[in-house]
Design a protein that fits this description.
The protein is mainly beta. It contains one helix and 27 strands. The protein is globular, with a radius of gyration of 17 Å.
């Protein structure tokens, strides 16, 4: 995961050099947000300082920014989503073919979402609601909620902080596997976490934590 984050920073430096807009429906900027019109097809959407907003039903090959959030409207389809400093929020029935990645920011996928790759953060919460994730979930300092009816194919990993990724935070990450959720792969925790697993949920083997089983609609408060 950290190798991927370093490549993200390289991507940030590369985008910092002004580039002309590419041919076709690609959009590339240094300063400014990008709006993808609902129901329209695009190639790559790249900016350095600005948000990326993808309208309902739009089709986008890839969307990335360095300093800004990414929002995706209901029913849109995207190849991959990546930011360094910003959150990523998906509406209902969004399809992402590959990965969703951010360094400092949260990721939320609303119900009906389908993600073909992994969901990764360093400092940011991850939340899924009735979502099908073929890959895994990885973070260092973020909370994780595999919400009601969600399925994760590749497991969950919370890594130990390394070097400049060590923010000095003392709070334990909170991990919740909700009602009727499934985590098919292993749950691996390299640092202390609080883990709640609903009685109706199913998970792979757990290492580094002991699950607290709950029966209510929401997990107990810490």
């Amino acid at each position: 995961m950290i190798a991927r984050i370093l490549s993200s920073l390289a991507f940030a430096f590369a985008l910092a050099c002004p580039l002309p807009a590419l041919a076709g429906n690609d959009i590339s900027k240094v300063n400014g947000s990008i709006e993808a019109t609902a129901g329209t097809s695009y190639g790559d959407l790249d900016t350095v300082n600005g948000a990326v907003r993808i309208g309902e039903g739009a089709q986008v090959r890839e969307a990335s920014t360095v300093n800004g959030s990414i929002t995706v409207g209901d029913g849109a389809s995207v190849g991959s989503l990546e930011t360094v400093n910003g959150s990523i929020r998906l509406g209902r029935n969004v399809q992402v073919a590959k990965d969703i990645e951010t360094v400092n920011g949260s990721v939320f996928v609303d119900q009906g979402g389908k993600v073909g790759g992994d969901v990764e953060t360093v400092n940011g919460a991850i939340g899924l609601v009735r979502t099908e994730l073929r890959g895994g979930i990885e973070t260092v300092n973020g909370d994780i909620t595999v919400g009601v009816g969600s399925r994760v194919g590749g497991g969950i990993t919370i890594e130990r902080s390394h070097g400049w990724f060590n923010t000095g935070k003392k709070r334990k990450p909170r991990v919740v596997v909700g009602p009727d959720a499934v985590v098919e792969g292993p749950l691996k925790f390299e640092r202390e976490v609080t883990l709640y697993v609903h009685r109706s949920a199913r998970t792979g083997p757990v290492t580094g934590a002991e699950a607290v089983v709950f029966d209510t609609e929401t997990a107990p408060q810490d």
